[in-house]
């Protein structure tokens, strides 16, 4: 009787807690990368649920079967049964192999350009962290924002992640998984937003006292609205100076700020030659061509 009431209490408690929970943002994808992650999560949950249900079903079956046997029953001695041993070893091995293949395949998918956007030019955004804020540089538009991010829908986004402080973790749950922003390296994260809306972004790696408030707002909008936003910023925002940027890097919390220009020129990221944007790409290409030409001339001179 006590067991019955304990089980009922547990079920009631779980039901009450789940009723008051908001939908998990991770399970509400708004982009292809996030959808891939959600698919893997559900495959894992269903696989584990099947295992649990089978174990409970077998347990119940043998408990009921054993309860019907006489008290003096002695089970037969079994030795070296290849069928049972194959099941015990083979089934868990097959489950591990299946989940490994699914996980590895999904990792390659989320690290690549989102499906359906392979032939489109990505929007490159440099996302840098400091204590305890996020700086977003748009080299293509020549603007910069602090603690908020505007994105065009139906276009691949290529984030260049790095940090001016401790290692942070850039994460927009409804658009994709997290990736680290470090002080001495640039990590690339590919995302895309299929659905216009407002999403939450945050630092998912503990970085000290202000970690909990190191969040940023994300707004995905149609390309036309995005272009209009860029025009408004260029006509109203103040330019970002080196002195102002150094002030922004001081530890503390800030609201949302907007500037024309970026910090990439006077405070470049660790991988400084990958500054993104059409003009920068052309410059980099020209520099590479000049370098290759110089090396060719040197080689010809040596011969």
Automatic annotation (TrEMBL):
Compartment annotation: Cell membrane
One GO cellular component, as annotated: plasma membrane
GO molecular function, one term: cytochrome bo3 ubiquinol oxidase activity
Source superkingdom: Bacteria
Catalysis: reaction(s): 2 a quinol + O2 = 2 a quinone + 2 H2O
PROSITE patterns hit by this protein: COX2_CUA (PS50857), COX2_TM (PS50999), PROKAR_LIPOPROTEIN (PS51257)
Membrane-crossing residue ranges in chain numbering: 39-62, 83-104
GO biological process: ATP synthesis coupled electron transport
Gene3D superfamilies: 1.10.287.90, Cupredoxins - blue copper proteins
Residues spanning the signal sequence: none
Predominant place of localization: membrane
Compositional bias per record (Basic and acidic residues), positions renumbered to this chain: 280-303
All copies of domain Cytochrome oxidase subunit II copper A binding, residue ranges: 120-232
Residues in Cytochrome oxidase subunit II transmembrane region profile domain copies: 18-114
Membrane topology annotation: Multi-pass membrane protein
Keywords for the protein's UniProt record, in alphabetical order: Cell membrane, Electron transport, Membrane, Oxidoreductase, Plasmid, Respiratory chain, Signal, Transmembrane, Transmembrane helix, Transport
Region (Disordered), start-end ranges: 259-303
Family to which this protein belongs: Belongs to the cytochrome c oxidase subunit 2 family.
Entry protein name: Quinol oxidase polypeptide II
């Amino acid at each position: 009787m006590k067991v019955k009431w304990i089980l009922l209490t547990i079920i009631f408690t779980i039901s009450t807690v789940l009723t008051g929970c908001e939908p998990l943002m991770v399970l509400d994808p708004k982009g292809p990368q996030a959808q891939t992650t959600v698919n893997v999560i559900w495959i894992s949950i269903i696989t584990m649920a099947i295992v649990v249900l089978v174990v409970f079903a077998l347990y119940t079956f043998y408990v009921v079967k054993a309860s019907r046997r006489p008290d003096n029953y002695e089970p037969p001695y079994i030795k070296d049964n290849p069928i049972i041993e194959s099941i015990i070893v083979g089934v868990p091995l097959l489950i591990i192999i299946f989940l490994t293949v699914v996980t590895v395949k999904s990792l390659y998918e989320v690290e690549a350009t989102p499906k359906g956007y392979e032939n489109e030019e990505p929007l490159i955004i440099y996302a840098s962290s400091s204590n305890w804020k996020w700086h977003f540089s748009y080299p293509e538009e020549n603007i910069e924002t602090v603690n908020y991010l505007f994105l065009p829908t139906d276009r691949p986004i290529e984030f260049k992640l790095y940090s001016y402080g401790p290692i942070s973790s850039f994460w927009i749950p409804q658009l994709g998984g997290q990736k680290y922003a470090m002080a001495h390296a640039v990590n690339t994260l590919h995302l895309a937003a299929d659905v216009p809306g407002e999403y939450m972004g945050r630092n998912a790696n503990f970085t000290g006292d202000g970690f909990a408030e190191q969040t940023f707002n994300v707004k995905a909008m149609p390309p036309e609205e995005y272009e209009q936003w860029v025009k408004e910023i260029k006509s109203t925002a103040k330019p970002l100076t080196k002195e102002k940027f150094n002030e922004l890097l001081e530890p503390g919390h800030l609201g949302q700020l907007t500037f024309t220009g970026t910090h990439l020129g006077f405070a470049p990221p660790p991988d400084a030659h990958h500054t993104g944007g059409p003009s920068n790409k052309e410059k980099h290409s020209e520099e590479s061509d000049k370098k290759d030409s110089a090396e060719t001339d040197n080689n010809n001179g040596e011969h």
